[in-house]
Model the fold of this input.
Amino acid sequence: MGTFAVTYAYTANSSAGRDEHRPRHVDFLQQQFDGGTLVKSGPFGPGEDPGALLIIESDSKADVEALMDQDPFYRNGLVAQRSIRQWNVVFGATTSAGASRN
Done:
């Protein structure tokens, strides 16, 4: 099982579209969280470019991509750029003490 950082950059002038699709987007994310796939997620703060960070546990990058293709924000063209990167957690990992950090 790997950990993946997914970042979204929203399309310009997509605020109304995000408001429209937010209930389905939140339901989708809630299902992933309840199932243990989504670890953390949320939008970037005020003063940042509109977007979000999601931390996902999955077997592969391809599985994360297929999952995130189902997000209503993505399916409705509200995500201008999406990045999926494997993330090797060192601090805060649930590994045993003394585990390799390479």
